[in-house]
Amino acid sequence: MKILHIISSPRGEASQTIQLSEAIIQKLQAKNSNAFVTVRNLTTDPLPYIAGHHIQSFNTPAENRSEEQLEAIKLSDELLAEVKNAAIIVIGAPMYNFGIPAFLKSWIDHLARAGVSFTYTADGPVA
């Protein structure tokens, strides 16, 4: 079983969010001895915010992307592969100012790609 652990609290070991998500992972590992955990710490390895060159790359068909566009989309593709390969995703998400941290929002922005992680239908977006 592959577990993806997303850390978005910059408080390190002082973070109750990290302590809770690690406790969840420990319980999952106790039930499945062959569990493998991949950790994506968004605070120690922050992602770039989505910018115009990312959006342009997302909207260009793969076969038509320039070298610059391929480089711009590379990280997003890696993040999507992590999510697709995980059987379970544990997201440690503290609340700041009544919302999620910018670290986590940036991760979501890299994952939310029309035609890749969701499609638009007459009834709205579908994953």
Any overview of this molecule?
This protein has 127 residues and is α/β, with parallel strands linked by helices. The protein has a single domain (2-126), classed as Rossmann fold (3-Layer(aba) Sandwich), CATH 3.40.50. Helix content is 41%, strand content 18%. It is built from four helices and five strands. It has helices at residues 16-31, 52-58, 67-85, 102-111; strands at 2-7, 36-41, 88-92, 119-121, 124-126. The strands form two sheets. A three-stranded parallel beta sheet has the order 2-1-3, with helices on both faces. Helix 2 (52-58) crosses helix 3.
Could you write a compact summary of the structure shown?
The protein contains 4 helices and 5 strands; from the N terminus they run E-H-E-H-H-E-H-E-E. The chain has 127 residues and is of the alpha/beta class. It has a single domain, classed as Rossmann fold.
Kindly report the average pLDDT value. Answer: 95
Put simply, the count of helices is 4
Task: Estimate the helix proportion, in percent.
Answer: 40-55%
Shape descriptor: globular
Note the beta-strand portion.
15-25%
CATH class type: Alpha Beta
The CATH architecture can be given as: 3-Layer(aba) Sandwich
